Serine protease (Micromonospora musae), 1232 residues
Amino acid sequence: MTALCTTLALLAPSPALASAPSTEPPPGSPATPSNSPAEPTVTLITGEKVTATRTADGGLSPEVRDADGRLTGFTSSRDGADTYVYPHGALPYVAAGLLDKQLFNITELLADGYDDAHLDRLPLIVTYTDAAARSRTASTPQGARSVRTLDSIQGAALNVDRSDAFWSSITGGGGDVAARSVGGQLALKGGIAKIWLDGKVEATLADSTAQIGAPEVWKSGNTGQGVDVAVLDTGIDATHPDLAGQVAAAESFVPGETVKDVFGHGTHVASTIAGTGAASDGKERGVAPGVRLHVGKVLGDDNSGQESWIISGMEWAVRDQHAKIVNMSLGADPTDGTDPMSVAVNELSEETGALFVVAAGNLGPAASTIGTPGAADAALTVGAVDGSDTLAFFSSQGPRVGDHALKPDLTAPGVGILAARSQYSTGEGLYRLSDGTSMAAPHVAGAAALLAARHPDFTGKQLKEALVSTAKGTPGLTPYQGGNGRLDIATTTTASVFATTSADFGYPDWPTAPEEPVQREVRYTNLADSAVTLDLAATVDGGPEDLFTLSARQITVPARGATSVTVTTDFDRVPADHPFSGLLTATDAAGTARTRTALAVGREGVRHRLTLQAKDRSGRPTGGELVLLGQDNTVLQQQIDQTGSLDLRLRAGTYAAWLKTDLEGTNGQHSRGLGLLPVPEITLDRDRTVVFDATKARRATVSTPQPSTVDGSRFELFRDFGGNPWVSAWYPEPEYDSVWVLPTSGKVTKGDFSFSTRWRTAQPALTVAAGSRDYDDLRVRRAGTPLPRGKHHLDAVYAGAGGSDAYATLNARGKAVVVRRDDSVPVEQQAAAAATAGARLLLVVNDGIGRLAPWPGSVWVPQDPPPVTVATLTADEGEQLITRIRHDRRVRLDVTSQPETEYVYDLVRDYTGAVAADLTYRVSLRDLARVEMSFRNWHPARALETRASLAPSGSSTGIDFHEVPARGERIDWVTAGAQWTTNVSIPDEQNQQTAPIAYRAGSVQEERWFGPVQRPRLLTNYTVFRGDGDGITAVIPGWGDSGTAHEGNTSGNFAVDNVLRLYQGDKLVGETDRYRTMLSSEPLSRESLRYRLVSENRRDAWAGPYSTTTRTEWGFTSGAVSSGVWNPSLIQLDYAVDTDVDGKAKRAADLTVTALHLPTATEASTIRTVTLDLSYDDGATWHHAKLRRDGDGWRTRIDAPRTARFVTLRATARDNRGNSVDQLITRAFGLR
């Protein structure tokens, strides 16, 4: 994970830490292409929807669509196990520190159940720029609902709709981000200072009161009596014998849940603090059984909660319940202490004098893993040790991310802690063992209560100082690992001398480290009636021995008084780019360490200036969206403004940068081109200037053997220095007429770099020329009855704004009408008026920048076609044509119409290591494969189709869906060698897709879609598996079509049953409801036993006459899995029969059955037997088919009676390992 550094908006590396209702596409659309029907979708704060496909290395490959369902550009990065996806419009706001990065952490959004299938709304926390009252008076932005105010952080919790309404309301909608600024700085509207994900926070899961000295304190009668302690956790089992009568107040901040502790964490924590031990004859007594508990349930029954719930609980605990001590055994992502929860800890501590005791987190042993709210300055942050004071491997460590501040403060027992078990939770007995810093924190909270009872006048700050400075030393641990030491409450309650907890000298930026020595005061307070003389010694871990010097090596602290010592460091002696910590120990005359103060210092090393300049195609300064990566994992996402210049301070090293900017296109000053300007390797060993020079950019284009126009494209830049790969992908919108890319000077020498281009070009629907002038920048929407195929010669006339009044004196019959786009006359009215006037073609001239959409709607939101074919021209081309019509007596247009697309090209070209100077992809048929696409749905319909390959980065190169007739033919030419996946859908009916396939150059492949025989079909056995959890999970798509390797699903919008059942022998061990295709069984016996997986599928008449019901039963043997995942050898049945477009075969047609194992099966097997029975009366009677081996299949010839209309199939197959399949398909295909 990375944390934001606001000075340069640098995303510097730091440790990773800890998002779904519908996986369905927009209404009327097909499902997203996938190898599994269960791919999740997350709607981001910007309104874009991210569909994530799991990659082979465990990462996520994202596909991003805008609110209208169109593919849109993004930048994706990997940080450890986390994948971040940033829509390009969000990058400037992240870079400016206005948006929390976790809003775009797809891995965590999915893991926390924040995807569309689990949450209708996205939970956010907003902080405001004004005073605290602002959060009470601010109007809620459009698209959001206010949940609660959070006064302590001057903010509020919001739930945001899964749309782009909220984003538009806080950014001002479309337009250049430069316009949405205040005083030249990018800003959010509505007084919002920053937006955070209201992220999931989890309890950070360990006993030994004797280890910390509590029994010694009890001997004096001190059990913390009268002290109010709040526990903010998963609730409490107040009926547990150890907690009966201990709870003074309880309240739930989890919507819809009571304070009952179903998870059990809160009860364990509360009893560690205040348990009486009644259930164990006093043996399992908490640290401070005399306290009054105030329980706030801020984590739900699933052990997680939203930050806003927790902040509300914090405010309740100290403001309403007046708790002296607040225990928070919970945490979230590592932060720099400026996040909402940390700010709340600081503000409430200052306001009320309470002490917040917070678990450090369980993200160790890595450094800089202290989670929020433990990152707060005021928090007493607790790590965990075992019974021998060895640091627990899981205990989060410092320094604090971002500013390298000292954390944690101390440690306490957190391994193998025995405490009360909530009787509402799973398990048995009254007690349970747990590990975690969650278990360590309540030891400290209880100890703080004992200390507060001993010193009732102590503030929270004084309690923290006493507990931390008198902790028992833990040799071998630095303060960044274990703070000042391990909690020792027996010593603390009897101590009379306390010291400042820490002296942190900071971590100044280069070159701002002070030239003169820097000093910090450490104060010693003596509560005793006699003076105390102390010897002082400072040590440092891993740095120069004299890094810290003292003004005195011996001090005398007066009775009932205080004195100070000055600690000095010289930054000239501090090694660069490394944080150092140490201890200042005060020892009495007997050689006993009385106090310890943590010391820390560091400084930034030399930085160089990198000046980035941007020029447009004319050499003028321009702005754009910048991404910069460093070999040291530095990441910057920034907006270069229209001055065309940006200065950065960076450490020496190797960097990569690229700029996305709008440029003038190929058709005049009103055209729009997309500029992608990479500089993939920058060696920064001195101050340097790098220019993104679009004057040197080259147009990326494609030349095909047959005439074609671009129907979609995708461009991807991949850069990896070895650890954190980054991908930026762009889908140029149709408004762009060209893409301009900056060639690179040579191949990169460090890491991996690639630039990938993906093209879908298609036979032109319409071409228009006037003499020697071709109008080649058209966008076309065919009419319901388009121009007939072929060439047409049409006179052109000009009709102004194109309203019906324009034709009063204008003869447009049989002609091409040219009009200007006009806000007062929508294109629907212009088309209606032109059609009424008898026009055969309408040409609309844009009055703005770029290419104009010819008709409302999209493939996702279809509209009725226009009454006349509509094409749009850019402003420059269109105005030239209007001028010619006005001045020439007659302008005749040569128009060629193609009512249906007969061929397309799907092309990819990857540039590895560098971007070539020649970016024209000249396609030769010998480099392509021919795919003959046949669409054979049982009725005419509108279908959608797309094809995707894999880029070198591993991401999918899919382009938007395109409309095709559900009955028809098309020739596709595809780049050979690439791994292609094709997806074809009929909205609201079915979705089909292929397995990945690499076509050979010059090969011919037939792909049939929607036709018989449809049945359950898997592309991979990975969707059926058994892991070490002893359950079987199965995902079985029910309706693979006539293709030999197609996986298919119905939309579920109509009557359909998809039921899965799993049997062990005859015992049912797992079952789905009628609409689901994913089954997860109960835990299974570890013995090797026989199982049956049954898939039953039914569709009503809406789905057509074929495959009305199917039943497939797979048999296999399964036992315990020792490690990893086991995939059964499921036998797949494919059928080949020659049917016509209506799904009907000849009565004596050949029928081939192929039985095969998918290549992902764990064990290799060989098919031994295949049988086939045929029925011509829906299964009333059966005819055994004689099969003969034919290649990989078994062939027979049907002999259907003259009266038969359908063929029903019953097939079986067995292999040498006892795996089997039995399949029944009712009305598999028709007869003619």
